[in-house]
Write a structure and sequence with these properties.
Layout lengths: L4 E5 L6 E6 L6 E5 L12 H4 L4 E5 L17 H5 L1 H9 L4 E6 L1 H12 L4 E7 L8 H10 L10 H9 L1 H4 L4 H16 L17 H5 L2 H6 L7 H6 L4 H4 L6 E7 L10 H11 L3 E6 L6 H4 L1 H12 L19
Parallel strand pairs: 3-4, 3-5, 5-6, 6-7, 7-8
Antiparallel strand pairs: 1-2, 2-4
């Protein structure tokens, strides 16, 4: 199985960290994770490497990507980092995939920068603005807990995600826990500090400052969720010009009482060149629970016969809206 490598790209807003697998000679695919799971694609990347140069970027402010020096007030700030990543890697165009939070960021990147996105996959996409009351209640209920000397913040984090951790063997549970821990607390890129805008945290930066002011009691971990809750979904989806796969599992619900296939159908209808795909028997945890199924669906879409080749001379990047 292909090995996974790590790297950083320097940008005006701080370093972007990524994991990658596959030869740079293959068509590039950028993957954007859910919140707060920067290691979401670790089991998927090697499975994609036979046909794609798979590059999983840590969302700015999560994992090892530096926290933005000024809090983003919407999805556009996150989406604008995709061209920066591509520029740093010397890639003109790429396929783009987003999962949950990452799907909203990917949708906006495709709408705002069509010259940089070849094909697009939106996995477990939801109109979070339409479900805002539910998600805001979640953020208020789970405030950010600064690191505690007795490790109480680790116990609280484990309990918060126990439903995701209890379904798998202990070694897999530990891998998932490390992913959410890295998303919540970060590890800090080299040289990062709270004063420099990096993602290293201390009790002082957790209890005061622009992160808490902008995102409420949940602090910086709620930055991306807060952005997607304000995203004008039905205004922006029609602006997407890339051929798009809207993929979801049929065994879960992102909205209480909702039909995921009905939500999916509305998204497909809103995007000019989109089709639906179903991952049978799984929910939004598919990259963890069924990486082979997940990777197979992506390879089928991005590498099917007649697909335009990403990474080529696609002209100048389009500006944002």
């Amino acid at each position: 199985m292909a090995s996974t490598r790590r790297g950083f790209v320097d940008t005006p807003e701080g370093q972007l960290h990524y994991y990658e697998a596959g030869s740079p000679a293959l068509p590039p695919l950028i993957l954007l994770h859910s919140t707060p799971n920067p290691r979401l694609f670790h089991a998927v990347l090697p499975l994609l490497a036979g046909g794609l140069h798979a590059i999983a970027m840590d969302t700015p402010g999560y994992g090892d990507s530096a926290r933005p020096p000024v809090p983003y007030d919407g999805v556009a700030g996150y989406a604008a980092r995709i061209p920066q990543l591509l520029d740093g890697l010397g890639i003109e165009r790429a396929h783009l995939l987003g999962h949950m939070t990452g799907a909203v960021i990917a949708a906006e990147a495709a709408a705002a920068f069509p010259g940089r996105v070849e094909r697009l996959a939106l996995v477990e996409f939801l109109d979070w603005a339409g479900a805002r009351a539910q998600s805001q209640e979640h953020h208020v209920r789970v405030p950010y807990r600064p690191p505690a000397p007795d490790g109480g913040h680790l116990v609280a984090l484990w309990e918060r995600y126990h439903d995701m951790l209890d379904r798998v063997p202990p070694d897999e549970a530990q891998r998932r826990f490390l992913s959410v821990f890295q998303g919540e607390y970060g590890t800090g890129t080299p040289g990062d500090s709270p004063s420099s805008g990096g993602f290293g945290r201390s009790e002082s930066t957790a209890s005061s400052g622009p992160g808490v002011d902008a995102y409420g009691p949940a602090g910086w971990p709620a930055a991306a969720p807060s952005a997607i809750e304000r995203y004008p979904t039905w205004e922006r989806l029609p602006a997407i010009r890339a051929r798009t796969l809207v993929l979801c599992g049929d065994a879960g619900r992102l909205r209480s009482g909702a039909d995921p296939l009905a939500d999916q159908a509305r998204v497909v209808e809103a995007i000019p060149d989109a089709r639906a795909g179903i991952l049978h028997g799984v929910d939004h945890s598919a990259p963890f629970l069924a990486p082979d199924l997940y990777a197979h669906a992506l390879l089928d879409f991005f590498l099917d016969a007649g697909a335009p080749e990403a990474g080529g001379d696609g002209g100048s990047p389009d500006g944002g809206s």
